Amino acid sequence: MSTKEKGVKDRILETAVRLFQTQGYGNTGINQIIQESQTAKASFYDYYPSKDLLGKAYIEFYGKEQLVLLEKLQSRSETARDFIQAWTHILRRQTRNNEFAGCPMANTAAQIASTSPSISEEVKKLALRTVDFLAIYLKERQKKGQIPKNADTQSLARKIFASYEGVLQIWKLTGKISALDDLPEMVDAIIKNSGKKSPI
Description:
about 200 residues; mainly alpha; Arc Repressor Mutant, subunit A; Tetracycline Repressor, domain 2; 9 helices
């Protein structure tokens, strides 16, 4: 692919990312993307023959950005609490941006329901990759004595990911940024109780 071709494709994707994030996947039409990306219709369909393919590219783009962010936060955090607090700080900053409407994974999955198997599969893969990333990070913290030795780090990672998605939904429903501040406390409680056996 030539530099010029790459430029056109990137411009289409960048426009789609902005519109999908602010308006939602379901509320954004191809014609608007073509118009705002200043792309010829024929060129658009050369790169993205369907909206589904563009939606999949959107989730892939977000996934790369998300994992790069988490890796950066991990490298700067001494403890799991530091990591979650830094993540919360990023979320608070993002919510002040009018172009941020919450988690693209959850938003897109809710909008497409079961109408796009390819996008649903991409969302599923990204969610699992995120949980796996958190599990690996928690395993490292466990080796350093910051997580109970008998804790299941994979289960712990799922609960933390669920908490992350949960506080974003509460923020969207209530409009209160303070909902995000519950994340560190929720994760603290999850980690504290992770080594305890559930009563039978």
